[in-house]
C-alpha cells in the first residue's frame, strides 16, 4: 500500500510538472505581438515604474545586432542576433569602396556574419544555450535602423522557429536541438533596406510572407518537417507586415497587408478569399483583428487605416462594406495596439499618439505629442489596464488604458530601443541595442 501511494505521489508530481512545462500561449509571449497578436497580454501585470537601479530583475549584454522581439515560453527567453565576425572575403570590395547603388547609399558587407539563436533562463538571465544557425556574408546590406536579425521567432511550446530571411529558416526544439532547416532563397529588398517580416504559426502550419523588389511570395510550410504545403506569387514591392491568421466565416484566413492590396488567403488551399486596396507604400504595421473586421494601416508617403470585413469575398477595394477609413497620423514602422475597443498608434515614427474607437474609427484622443519620447520604432504593448510605449531614447511611457490621455509614469533606461517589448506574468522584457532587460517589481 505504501509503495502504491509513493507511486501515486510521483505520478501526480510528474503530471504537475508536465502541465507546468506545457504552459499556454495566454500565459506567455510566444510570438511577435503576443498571445492575441494585438500587443495585449491578458495575464501579465508588469511594473509601472523602473529605472537602471529600480525594479530591474536582470540585465544582460547581447552581442551582435538584432531588433526582433524576444519571445517567452515558461522559464525560457529566446532571441535572435546577427554577429559580425570580422572575417573578410577579399573578393568583395570594402563597403567604403563600393559605388553608390541606392538612395540611402547602403553597401553590401564583405565580412562573415554569424546568425545566432540565444536561449536565456527567465529567472536569472543566464545563457542556457546558443546555436549558430549559419555563417555567411549577407548578399546585400540593410538600413542603419534595420539589421540581419529583425524577424521575431515563434514557438508552440515544442518547436522554436527562427527566420533570418535570406540567411535561412531554422527549427529547433526548446533545448536547442535542430530539427530542420530551409533555404528559401534570397530576397532583393528595394534600396537594400533589409528584411523583417516575422513567421506565424497556426495549427501546425508556418506562414512566411516575403514582399520585396524581386518576386514576392507567400509560402506555407509544414511546421514539423519544413516541407512546403503551398506557395503563391504576390504582385507586391517592399513590405514588412507580419501576417495575421484567424479562423472566421468557415475558413482559416491568412491576412497579409501590403501596398498593392490587403489579401486574405485560405490557409489550407492558398486561394485568395478577398482583397482590398488602399494602403500606402512600404507597409510595415501588422493587421489586428476586432470581431468581424481586420484593421490595417500604413504611414509611409501618406497615411491610411481601414477596417475591412472578414465576411466578404472577391475584390472589395473602395467598397461601402469597409467599416471605416482614416487618412492621417498612422504609423510607418510600429504596429498599433488594440486593447478592448481602443486602438493606440503613433504617427509615422514620431512621438505623436492617437487613440481611436476600433468599432467606429472616431478619435478618442489625440494627436497627442509625447514630449518625453524621441522617435518611436517599437510597437506599444498593453496589460493590466495599462499601455506601455517605448521611445528610441530609452524612455517608456506608461499610460492608463482609458478614453483620456493619462500618464501613470515615465521610465528611463540607458540604451536605444527599436525592438518591441514582451510581457509575461509580472515581467516586462525590453531589448535595447546593447542589453536585454527583465523588469519586475522587486
Task: Provide keyphrases for this structure.
442 residues; disordered N terminus; Thrombin, subunit H; five-stranded mixed beta sheet; 3 domains; Lipocalin; mainly beta; single chain; 1 helix; four-stranded antiparallel beta sheet; 33 strands; globular
Overall description:
- The protein contains 1 helix and 33 strands.
- By secondary structure, it is mainly beta.
- The protein has 3 domains: 49-64 and 336-442, Lipocalin, CATH 2.40.128.630; 70-194, Thrombin, subunit H, CATH 2.40.10; 197-334, Lipocalin (Beta Barrel), CATH 2.40.128.
- Strands 14-15-16-17-21 form a 5-stranded mixed beta sheet, with no helix packed on it.
- It is globular.
- Residues 26-45 are annotated as: Disordered.
- InterPro entries: PQQ_b-propeller_rpt (IPR018391), PQQ_rpt_dom (IPR002372), Quinoprotein_ADH-like_sf (IPR011047), WD40/YVTN_repeat-like_dom_sf (IPR015943).
- Keywords: Signal.
Amino acid at each position: 500500500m505504501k509503495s502504491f501511494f509513493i507511486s501515486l505521489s510521483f505520478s501526480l508530481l510528474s503530471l504537475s510538472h508536465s502541465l507546468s512545462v506545457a504552459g499556454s500561449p495566454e500565459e506567455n509571449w510566444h510570438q511577435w505581438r503576443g498571445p492575441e497578436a494585438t500587443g495585449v497580454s491578458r495575464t501579465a501585470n508588469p511594473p509601472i515604474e523602473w529605472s537602471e537601479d529600480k525594479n530591474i530583475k536582470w540585465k544582460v549584454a547581447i552581442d551582435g545586432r538584432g531588433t526582433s522581439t524576444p519571445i517567452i515560453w515558461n522559464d525560457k527567453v529566446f532571441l535572435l542576433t546577427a554577429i559580425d565576425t570580422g572575417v573578410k572575403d577579399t573578393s568583395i570590395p570594402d563597403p567604403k569602396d563600393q559605388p553608390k547603388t541606392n538612395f540611402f547609399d547602403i553597401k553590401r558587407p564583405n565580412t562573415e556574419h554569424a546568425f545566432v539563436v540565444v536561449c536565456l533562463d527567465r529567472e536569472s538571465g543566464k545563457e542556457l544555450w546558443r546555436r549558430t544557425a549559419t555563417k555567411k556574408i549577407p548578399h546585400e546590406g540593410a538600413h542603419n535602423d534595420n539589421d540581419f536579425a529583425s524577424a521575431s521567432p515563434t514557438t508552440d511550446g515544442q518547436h522554436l522557429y527562427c527566420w533570418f530571411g535570406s540567411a535561412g529558416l531554422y527549427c529547433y526544439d526548446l533545448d536547442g536541438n535542430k530539427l530542420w532547416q530551409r533555404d528559401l532563397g534570397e530576397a532583393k529588398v528595394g534600396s537594400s533596406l533589409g528584411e523583417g517580416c516575422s513567421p506565424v504559426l497556426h495549427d501546425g502550419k508556418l506562414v512566411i510572407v516575403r514582399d520585396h523588389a524581386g518576386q514576392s511570395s507567400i509560402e506555407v510550410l509544414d511546421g514539423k518537417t519544413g516541407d512546403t504545403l503551398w506557395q503563391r506569387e504576390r504582385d507586391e514591392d517592399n513590405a514588412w507586415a507580419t501576417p495575421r491568421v484567424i479562423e472566421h466565416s468557415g475558413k482559416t484566413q491568412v491576412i497579409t497587408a501590403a501596398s498593392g492590396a490587403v489579401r486574405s488567403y485560405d490557409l489550407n488551399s492558398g486561394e485568395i478569399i478577398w482583397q482590398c486596396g488602399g494602403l500606402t507604400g512600404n507597409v510595415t504595421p501588422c493587421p489586428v483583428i476586432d470581431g468581424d473586421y481586420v484593421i490595417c494601416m500604413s504611414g509611409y508617403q501618406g497615411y491610411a487605416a481601414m477596417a475591412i470585413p472578414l465576411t466578404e469575398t472577391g475584390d472589395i477595394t473602395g467598397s461601402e462594406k469597409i467599416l471605416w477609413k482614416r487618412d492621417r497620423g498612422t504609423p510607418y514602422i510600429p504596429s498599433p495596439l488594440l486593447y478592448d475597443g481602443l486602438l493606440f498608434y503613433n504617427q509615422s515614427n514620431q512621438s505623436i499618439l492617437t487613440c481611436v474607437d476600433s468599432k467606429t474609427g472616431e478619435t478618442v484622443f489625440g494627436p497627442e505629442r509625447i514630449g518625453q519620447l524621441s522617435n518611436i520604432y517599437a510597437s506599444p504593448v498593453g496589460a493590466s489596464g495599462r499601455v506601455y510605449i517605448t521611445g528610441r531614447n530609452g524612455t517608456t511611457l506608461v499610460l492608463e488604458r482609458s478614453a483620456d490621455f493619462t500618464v501613470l509614469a515615465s521610465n528611463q533606461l540607458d540604451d536605444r530601443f527599436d525592438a518591441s517589448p514582451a510581457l509575461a506574468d509580472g515581467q516586462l522584457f525590453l531589448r535595447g541595442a546593447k542589453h536585454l532587460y527583465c523588469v519586475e517589481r522587486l
